[in-house]
Amino acid sequence: MKYKKRNKALVLLADGTIFYGKSIGKEGTAFGEVCFNTGATGYQEIFTDPSYYGQLMVTTNVHIGNYGAHKDEVESNSVKISGLICRNFCFEYSRASATESLENFLEANNILAISDVDTRALVSYIRDNGAMNAVISTDINNIEGLKKQLDEVPSMEGLELASQVSTKEPYYFGNENAKYKISALDIGIKTNILKNLAKRDAYIKVFPYNASFEDLEAFKPDGYFLSNGPGDPEPLKEAQDVAKEIIKRDLPLFGICLGHQVIALSQGISSYKMHHGHRGINHPVKNLITGKGEITSQNHGFAINREETEANSDIEITHLHLNDNTVAGIRIKDKNCFSVQYHPEASPGPHDSSYLFDQFIENISKN
Ligand SMILES: NC(=O)CC[C@H](N)C(=O)O
Question: Recorded GO terms, molecular function (predicted)?
Answer without folding.
Answer: carbamoyl-phosphate synthase (glutamine-hydrolyzing) activity
